[in-house]
Amino acid sequence: MSVKSPGTKSPGAKSPGPGRKTATLGTETIQRGAGGETHQVAGGDVPVLTTQQGIPVADDQNSARIGARGPTLLEDFHFREKIFHFDHERIPERVVHARGYGAHGFFELTESLADVTRADVLQRPGERVPAFVRFSTVAGSKGSSDLARDVRGFAVKLYTHEGNWDIVGNNIPVFFIQDAIKFPDVIHSVKPEPDRDFPQAQSAHDNFWDFVSLSPESIHMALWVMSDRAIPRSLRFMEGFGVHSFRFVNKAGKSTYVKFHWKPKQGLQSVVWNEALKINGADPDFHRRDLWNAIQSGDFPEWELGVQLFDDDFADSFDFDVLDPTKLIPEELVPVRRIGRLVLDRVVDNFFAETEQVAFCTQNIVPGVDFTNDPLLQGRNFSYLDTQLKRLGGPNFTHIPINAPKCPFHNFQQDGHMAMHNPKGRANYEPNSWGGAQGGPREDPARGFTSFPAREAGEKLRERSELFGDHYSQARQFYLSQTETERVHIQQAFTFELSKVETPPIRARVVSHLVNVDIDLATAVAQGLGLEDLPEAAPPARPLVDGLAPSPALSILRNGPDSFKGRKIGILVTDGVDAGLLKAVTDAARAEGTNVELVAPKVGGVTLHDGTLVPAGQKINGGPSVLYDAVVLLPSADGATLLMQEATARDFIADAYAHAKFIGYAEAALPLMERAGVRPADMDDGILKLSTPADATAFIAACRALRFWEREANVHAV
Ligand code: HDD
């Protein structure tokens, strides 16, 4: 027996014309399913499905065939077009920074920089231009998880009145290598090893550390990547850096060096490594979900644009070469002047069209901005345009709306794959003698981009500046600028990563560099690895600079938020929860701007002791405490007894404790806590009993410290 094609007969529905709905019932539309059954679609009118050619489609459930059991017809253009298009949906992922997430927003100037640059976007305070930002991890492929230990890309496109300006930065202000010629090597080394194709999105393997141990220039950045900077709690809670020294050029043609910083208004925050490992399992999309939710709820993330401005005199007096991208300039030496704000206030309409197809390029600069001879930047200027050709399939990727300037643009570039806007008029060359619209655009020496006329002379050679040779002094400065908690995290991260390295000499070679950075760090890592002896220090290429002052700006914990706004609390609840206490906690959280999510035995929710039913955000095994910044335990006495038998409930508490989170609890939770390993003797000032609304307010206030770090010493014996 054959099933009738739903396209041939349907109750009361004639074949609809283009743009007309199939059939509606009130505000709901009758939709026919694959088996000929009907179901209702929420909402009002729906447009008629068409092919790419605009032909209305009568049947999207069955391909055309001869008889119900016969062969499929080649002439079924709708079927063929649909499959053909599906077969070609993928484009090559980015060779680095494949996994990313983007959002729209604006940049608003708050302080004019007219004295140092002619860049139009930096002239008039209060003026806004549209912006698009894409955050990313570097090593993992497009489907890897968000909380890999990795550098985060922080790429900003400003659609200015004088063209697109891209600041293609990272959340770390220095880079692994000094010369772009080493980029394929460092990236190959960190990507999955080519014979076995693992590990994915991890630096913890032999090849990466082999490369680092043989390339001392990467030690400074390795310190950053082993710090909590590489496991941010949220894309909203991290800094961005342009890394290189760029130039500003003013109307008089004077050049000033500049380094770019993005400072999050939300403050800095990271997770701890064990937490990151578990988040990757619980929610591999943790960062993108967080950004999406924040923007959708109107909690728009914001960064200040900061500039470090300096001149040749400073550059000449600095201990390091300002062209060396493995070095930073401490903010305490050259202050960061905050001149604007970047606000992300709109998610994309479509991930592929915008986030996947956006094409950044360090070469996209505007009049008033210029390059320096940083050899990494010079190489990048070649790579980005080149990679887009491969990735986006032709030279017309600038015609894709996300990449097109939002100011007028005219040139004689034409044709090529997918050309969307060829030049109008008769002339497609210049000079030409045609006037008006026929003749097309002309160059404008007054407004157009001009390069800073830096004087260059020298021999053609393959050499680096001598000052590039100190690879340890700033690494040491970074380490000594951290709080004790952060230093321990760095020690643990090196130990973890090198413990995954299977070749002992590579482990020892890395430690031999750490000896030059800090003897305590090297000793802790050597002990953590079980090395019998501390290796000899690797011979430095150049004497180190002694006594660099610590830079507090380099620490995350010294630059946290002053509120718990934008963070998230998980409240563990069961049937019989004290309604008053639950309300007190949620009210206090909301007053702070903190999000709350109820975690319950069943997602359908719980019945409070007053009989109210409240839905839950997560079932307990889908909402582990690693997804929250702090937790509150409000089970009823019966609920606590029930949860004592539930491993995921015990993990919820044990992990929150081990990750140094603030824990609020109702009296009834005590037996459950003890069962989870938090005994009365383990109670500390980060664990607060909640009985009254005042307790709830005090708990939220305590959470502003983000973590109760003092506890960490009690949770790690090894
Ligand atoms: Fe790069 C992508 C940042 C060095 C070559 N890079 C890319 C992205 C970011 C950075 C954020 C992702 C852009 C996006 O979201 O689409 N890259 C950096 C920083 C560097 C750096 C901060 C050092 C300071 N990169 C670097 C070098 C080279 C490249 C030295 C090559 C010589 N980078 C690329 C690339 C990518 C890229 C292959 C891959 C996808 C793309 O460009 O659009 O061209």
TrEMBL record:
User: Any idea which GO molecular function terms this record carries?
Assistant: catalase activity; heme binding; metal ion binding
UniProt cofactor(s)? heme
Residue stretches spanning the membrane: none
EC numbers: 1.11.1.6
An example GO BP is: hydrogen peroxide catabolic process
Q: Which residues bind heme?
A: R94, R134, F183, R380, Y384, R391
Q: Which reaction does it catalyse?
A: 2 H2O2 = O2 + 2 H2O
Q: Does the keyword Lipid metabolism apply?
A: no
Q: Which PANTHER family match?
A: CATALASE, CATALASE-B
Protein name (database record) = Catalase
**What phylogenetic lineage does the species belong to?**
Bacteria, Pseudomonadati, Pseudomonadota, Alphaproteobacteria, Acetobacterales
